[in-house]
Amino acid sequence: QLSLTNRFIFAGLTGDNQILVMDGTGASPTAVARIVVPFGTPRSLSLTPDLSRLYVTVPGVAPVAIFDAVT
Hints:
By secondary structure, the protein is mostly beta strands. It is built from no helices and six strands. The protein is globular.
């Protein structure tokens, strides 16, 4: 069984230049927010161990973009 300490799931939407935020606590994930990535297409995503920041690779623009994962 997978044990999660974070209720949110983050997914890069490469066609829309957005990050989809989903609540993963229910029977099926529900979309709760979208984060616009105005400067490029999000690729790889990674949360910091304390779940406060989301690191996103944006090819051709910057090696890594950092987003607040709390607010």
